Amino acid sequence: MQKAAETINEKVGSAVSTIKTRLHLDDAMERLHVTKEYLLEAAIYAGVGFVAGYLLKRFSGVVAIVILTIASIALLQHFDLVGVMINWEKIQDLIGIDPEAVLNENFFAIVWLWIKTHVLLAVSFVVAFLLGLKCA
Hints:
It is a single chain. The chain is built from 8 helices and no strands. The chain is mainly alpha-helical. The protein has 2 domains: 1-33; 34-135, no CATH class.
């Protein structure tokens, strides 16, 4: 029984290495300047996207209540009935956005620039998010 399992493992390993050499994955990764760390980061973005999509679909009622609560607090703050302080510089530093660029440009322009710079990460997040929506 164990000998059969070892034989299957050897066949699978040789098939994977054959596919890897025929597709020239290592060469393609070098030409595209993609490292293993970048692929790991893309996998993390995909995982977060899947979980976000799944939770959004699963708990859409709760998400709607949270959005309405935030909108009502923003409306109350607009009429100076409530004061809310958000430290945007800390949030931007956590995300990796340059706070000085935010002062000079539109927020959506900065997000679009980040998406253009990190295409693989953005695509992996969006695809996994849509899969999470579909699976729920």
